[in-house]
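User: Thanks for the earlier help. One more: FAA hydrolase family protein. Can you show the sequence and predicted structure together?

Assistant: Of course, both are below.
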Amino acid sequence: MSEFVIPAPTAATIPVAGGGVFPVRRVYCIGRNYAAHAVEMGHDPDREPPFFFQKNPDNLDASGSFPYPTQSSDVHHEVEMLVALKSGGTNIKLEDALDHVWGYAPSLDMTQRDLQGVAKKMGRPWEIGKAFERSGPVGPLQAVADVGHLDSGKIELTVNGEVRQTGDLNQMIWKVPEMISYLSDFFELAAGDVIMSGTPSGVGPVVAGDTMVVTIEGLNDLTVKVV
C-alpha cells in the first residue's frame, strides 16, 4: 500500500539518444556566461563571481513544440548547452568536476523578457520570467561516452532559417568544470541535476509560427516550433 496521500507526480525526464530517459532532479541555470551577451543585457563583461537561477524539472520539454505563454508579449529565445550530471557531492574539486558529467544536450532557456524586466526593476526573483510552463525546450541527451566533453565548437540558433545567435562554447566566461565546482560549494549536487550553461549574444523575440533550430557542434540538432 502506498504511503502517498495523493497520487505521486510523474518524474521529469529527458530522452536519451539511442533509447532510455534521464531522470531530472534539479535545474541550475547560469546567468550572463558569455561576454557579448552580458554587454547586450547592459552589464560589464568582466569575469565576476557567477550567479545562478533555477527552472523547475518539469519545465524541460522534449516535445519539439513551445506554446507561446498567454501572460507575456515579449518572449525571447536563449540557446544553451545543457549539462547532465550522473553523480555529485559537495566541494567538488575543479579537476574532478567533469567526472560527474553523464552527457550533453541542446536546449533553450525561453524567457518572458517583459515579466523578467519588471521583476528586475522591483528587486524580485526571476522565476515568473524564467520558470514558466515548458520554458526549457531540450533535445535528446548524448552520453559523454559517445560525444566526449564539449568545451569548444559552434553554438547557434536560427529562427525561420535566419541566424539569430552564434558563438563558440569556448567563449563561456565560466567553463563547465568551474560551474560544477562552484555550485557544489553552495548545494549538494546529485545524479539527475542538470546545468544550463548560458547563452551567447543575439537573444530576441519569437512569435507563434516561428521555427527555432539549435545547432551545437558535436550534438544532434534541436528543432522547436512556436505554437
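User: Great, one quick takeaway?

Assistant: The CA atoms of residues 103 and 142 lie 5 Å apart.
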